[in-house]
Design brief:
Length: 907
């Protein structure tokens, strides 16, 4: 509202107020374009685990902070306008609050403490995909008045930690097999630290993935991204699942150590830290160059890859121009919160790929093989010696091993530096480091070598040693007789000694800190590893993007539904449900979706179950307990899913149609159901998680292979309630002597009790399928019968070739006898037994075995499971086997991987 003194100042005929609004609108549009470029694909990430803010702050456009820089020009106008004067005052206050909030905001909870200060808990989940295993760390940071501290997420450890053996690279031939370990780690983290659910998760791989072909590595990363998206945590952007280059790994490790030792003093913190991290595939060196360090201009230009500026915590070097603009915008007025001084020079970081301990073993052995003076590092026997039960004299000495290690390190290769003393090994620059001016902190395999050689007291996680002590250990280990220590003890001790002394120039008598874990907060321990640095690096920048994404989602906060590209959601209180153009009014399989209209995909066999009474019967038959994990195949848009979420501890919904997967997830989130995990994929190709109950509404064309996969799943689940085509269901539940009794029924009933729940008429679906359906329940046997399944199924294949004929008639078939005879000869050969039966004699042998069982004149459909098992045992006792009988034209004994493709479905 303007008062009587309101005035305008001319500006080329344009109202100043209008001009200012145009300027602000232009700037706002420019910033929103940047925001659009950076908004994550997963729109759900910003609404999880959000802190509470003052409504006025949430409503404020973030670009308003730029107004303060323009106040001088328009002071007269603003002073004469009471409304704008009040606005400026509020904006000035909000600007200060905004900067503070951006510094104090993250994937956590924001609270006010006493004196008006803001205190916040921030969680980060980091998966370290190393060359020998994958580890998960859950970090909890507390931020108050510009200070960051680390909080406990476990006891006595500072951080929650789990590990699975075997690196991701072990799954390069079949990336999907990496799922199980990753899913287990993420599940453990969500259970161990439930407060962290919804926070940012990242997976960073190290040397293991750097050493495999890029395409194979990317396939593993894609699987990892899908696993994280399906987990209770948030993948903010695809770049959070990546392969770290060695320098980044070294940088993060240095950041971890700098954070711990920079904030908590000890006897060796008077000097800056130089960090050495010896992994399995690579080794890194990182340190901050001192202010007085002299680097010649030519060296600075030549070794730019070794030196990098350091940013405040949470302000990693931007990778794109738009990210740089955003960083400048949000961090311009943020004070540094690094524990140590930033008055020193840039950070030196370098990684030597192929010089981790395990890779170095291979490198040294290769050098030993190709060298002119060979040594024997493992068993210490002369070259080309044959094995005999005698002990050869020890030809190993520490000096001979050291010479080979030094050759493998290639210490004499010139790095091109102005001063030769600044060259490390393998032609790499060591930088302007005076080792005596630093405290070297050495981690990972160096600690393992120290501990295995008695340099670490029992129960200690950190020790101060010298290179001279490692050298003494090497002398002892290399002088031992065969069997006196672990096979690699001599080589490992020599390699660590040479790496620290020759490679990094540490004097023999200089105290060096060797640690496995870092001590923090009155004895709290955390693993000495780079993931802490990676988490610290993501505290601020992602925070700024997250805050902007939340502000730019006003519709969600007001309960307004945006238009959906895949259908129409019925708004609360609305009676309208208009299908999208081309939708045809048809709806998704799986029980609808609260008024969602979607065009159906014929290739997925989608039909809408419209009979709510059938849902009741599925729920009743499933007998779900509050502690159960339910696997639902084909949730559609979620009518059954919503019922399951009310009963089970967790529901994992596997959906092949991405539209349905997105909709069922949205529906659960809208209803506040956080116990749903949606996996997008093919049920036949996707590895099933661990579950207690399975419910499924299947496309009928996959009934046979799905049934096989389900019953073969381990660990054994409790029950499955599955909808099949009625004809297929009749064959599943058939009992001995019934018309539909066959291989399908026998093989399924071998593993489970199979019963009919109910028939479902085709009129219960929209659109109706061509056939009726049946719901079948499988209750798995607690103690499955221990039987060679391919053999058992091979026997059944012969028996049911003509199920109304006698077994004698089926087994005396010429082609069957031929295959069985060749199997018999193979069996005799493998067991060093003479072939007693050939030709007519073998046929008589089969006939006698069959008659000895008492089943020769029985018909296949009249024989029960126990009798078939007894018959198989009788055949095996007589050397008669059945693998590969499905194809009498070949004699190759392959595994019967198609054993459950029992009879062709007439879907």
């Amino acid at each position: 509202m303007y008062d009587e003194h309101h005035r305008q100042e001319p500006s080329h005929g344009i109202d100043v107020t209008v001009k200012r609004r145009l300027e602000l609108s232009s700037m706002k549009a420019e910033e929103e374009n940047v925001i659009d470029d950076l908004t994550p694909r997963d729109a759900s990430w910003a609404v999880r685990n959000e802190p509470a803010f003052h409504p006025g702050l949430l409503a404020m456009n973030p670009i308003s902070v730029t107004v303060s820089s323009m106040r001088t020009k328009s002071w007269k106008l603003l002073r004469s306008c009471r409304e704008q004067a009040v606005r400026v005052a509020l904006l000035a206050l909000f600007t200060l609050l905004l900067v503070g909030v951006l510094i104090n905001f993250g994937s956590g909870r924001l609270v006010s403490r006493g004196s008006g200060s803001l205190e916040q808990s921030i969680f980060k989940v980091v998966l370290d995909a190393g060359s020998t295993g994958t580890r998960i760390h859950v970090f909890k940071f507390r931020r108050r008045d510009g200070d960051i501290t680390l909080e406990r997420t476990a006891d006595p450890e500072m951080t929650f930690f789990r590990k699975v053996d075997g690196g991701l690279s072990a799954y390069k031939e079949n990336p999907e097999e990496a799922r199980e370990g990753l899913e287990w780690l993420l599940k453990e983290a969500s259970i161990g630290v439930p407060e962290a659910v919804g926070c940012q998760a990242l997976l960073l791989a190290t040397a293991g993935l750097r050493l495999i072909p890029p395409q194979a590595a990317e396939e593993l990363l894609q699987v990892s991204r899908r696993v994280i998206r399906e987990s209770p945590f948030t993948l903010v952007r695809d770049e959070d699942v990546a392969v770290l280059d060695g320098s980044e790994e070294g940088l993060y490790m240095w950041r971890s150590v700098d954070f711990i030792y920079g904030a908590h003093s000890s006897a060796l913190t008077s000097k800056p830290s130089a960090v050495v991290d010896l992994g399995g595939g690579s080794v890194q060196l990182a340190y901050r160059t001192l202010k007085g360090s002299q680097v010649s201009p030519s060296d600075r230009n030549k070794f730019t890859d070794y030196l990098r500026p350091t940013y405040p915590i949470g302000a990693a070097a931007p990778s794109t121009s738009s990210e740089k603009r955003m960083k400048d915008y949000f961090l311009a007025s943020a004070a540094s919160i690094r524990p140590q001084s930033m008055a020193d020079g840039p950070l030196y970081v370098h990684s030597w790929l192929g010089y981790g301990l395990e890779a170095a073993r291979q490198r040294v052995l290769q050098e030993n093989t190709n060298g002119s003076s060979r040594i024997h590092l493992i068993f210490k026997v002369p070259p080309h010696a044959s094995y005999h039960p005698t002990i050869y004299p020890n030809t190993m000495t520490m000096q001979r091993c050291l010479a080979t290690v030094r050759a493998a390190l290639d210490l004499h290769q010139d790095c091109g530096a102005t001063q030769a003393s600044e060259c490390a090994f393998n032609g790499a620059w060591r930088g302007p480091i005076d080792p005596s001016s630093y405290t070297f902190r050495v981690f990972s395999y160096v600690f393992d070598v120290a501990r295995s050689n008695g340099l670490v007291p029992t129960g200690a996680h950190e020790v101060v040693v010298t290179v001279a002590e490692f050298r003494d250990v090497a002398r002892v280990r290399c002088a031992e007789t065969v069997g006196g220590s672990l096979p690699w003890a001599c080589l490992d001790a020599v390699y660590v000694t040479s790496l620290l002394s020759d490679g990094f120039g540490i004097p023999d008598t200089q105290p060096t800190v060797v640690a496995e874990r870092l001590s923090y907060d009155k004895g709290g321990l955390l693993y000495a590893a780079w993931p802490l640095g990676a988490a610290l690096e993501r505290l601020d920048f992602v925070v700024a993007l997250r805050f902007l994404a939340m502000i730019r989602r006003p519709a969600a906060s007001r309960g307004v539904h945006r238009s959906s590209p895949i259908g129409v959601i019925k708004a609360p209180g609305s009676n309208k449900n208009t299908p999208p153009r081309g939708g045809g009014g048809q709806k998704a399989a799986g029980g609808g979706g609260g008024g969602l209209a979607l065009p159906l995909q014929k290739k997925f066999g989608q039909h809408l179950l419209k009979n709510p009474g059938i849902l009741d019967k599925i729920i009743e038959a499933s007998d779900i307990k509050s502690t159960d994990t339910v696997l639902e195949i084909g949730p559609g848009t979620g009518n059954l899913t919503m019922r399951l979420l009310e009963l089970a501890k967790k529901v994992v919904a596997l959906e092949i149609d991405p539209r349905m997967a997105a909709e069922v997830k949205k529906r659960a989130q809208t209803s506040g159901r956080m116990n749903l995990k949606v996996i997008e994929g093919d049920a036949l190709k996707t590895a099933f998680p661990v579950f207690d109950v399975c419910v499924a509404n299947l496309p009928y064309q996959i009934s046979s292979p799905f049934t096989f996969k389900l019953l073969a799943h381990r660990p054994v689940f409790r029950c499955g309630v599955i909808m099949f085509q009625k004809e297929f269901g009749e064959r599943l539940v058939a009992r001995v002597g019934e018309e539909n009794y066959g291989r399908l029924a026998i093989n399924c009933q071998l593993f489970s009790k199979v019963t009919r729940v109910c028939n479902v008429s085709k009129g219960s679906f929209n659109p109706p399928p061509e056939v009726d359906s049946m719901i079948v329940k499988f209750v798995l046997h607690k103690d499955p019968i221990n039987v060679d399944f391919p053999e058992f199924d091979g026997l059944l294949r012969i028996a049911f070739t003509r199920k109304n004929k006698t077994l004698h008639s089926s087994f005396m078939n010429k082609a069957v006898i031929k295959v069985l005879e060749e199997n018999y000869k193979t069996y005799c050969s493998l067991h060093s037994q003479p072939v007693q039966y050939q030709g007519p004699a073998f046929k008589a042998h089969v006939e006698n075995t069959l008659r000895g069982s008492g089943l020769a004149e029985s018909r296949a459909m009249k024989i029960d499971i126990d009798q078939y098992l007894a018959l198989l045992l009788e055949f095996h006792r007589n050397g008669i086997h059945f693998v590969n009988v499905s194809d009498p034209s070949t004699t190759t004994n392959k595994a019967a991987t198609d054993a459950f493709s029992m009879e062709v479905d007439s879907a």
